[in-house]
Amino acid sequence: MAIKKQYLKSKPICKVTFTVPAKEAENVAVVGDFNNWNPKGSSLKKLKNGTFKGTFELPKENTYEFRYLVDKTYVNDESADRYQWNDYAGAENAVIEL
Q1: CBM20 domain spans which residues (predicted)?
Q2: What is the pLDDT of residues 42-93, one digit of tens each?
Q3: Pick the CATH number of 2-97 from 2.70.98.10, 3.90.1150.10, 2.60.40.10, 3.30.450.20
């Protein structure tokens, strides 16, 4: 898994590219507090090599909790900036700091 951050000089946003190797998966989405944990509209595209990839524009100078939804199973990104316990989920969420 990988997270790539590209800060834009012209806008107060950061283009964040999420990459998830999941050859056996049918669907992968990134969900978090930046999209109300809704997988609709946040699906990653499956590439020929079996990796899922997607880029999202997020406001910078913010911190977001997120997880991947891989075929209905929540997965954290090991390359996240840090992790934070979430009482509602009863688990740790990955955190990205922009």
Answers
A1: 8-98
A2: 999 999 999 999 999 999 999 999 999 999 999 999 999 999 999 988 999 9
A3: 2.60.40.10
Q: For the purposes of burial, counting CB atoms within 10 Å of the CB of 52, is it exposed (0-12), middle (13-18) or buried (19 or more)?
A: buried
> Mind listing the pLDDT tens digit for each residue in 3-54?
999 999 999 999 999 999 999 999 999 999 999 999 999 999 999 999 999 9
Contact between 16 and 2 under an 8 Å Cβ cutoff? The reply is no
What backbone torsions phi and psi does residue 31 show, to the nearest 5 degrees? Answer: -125, 145
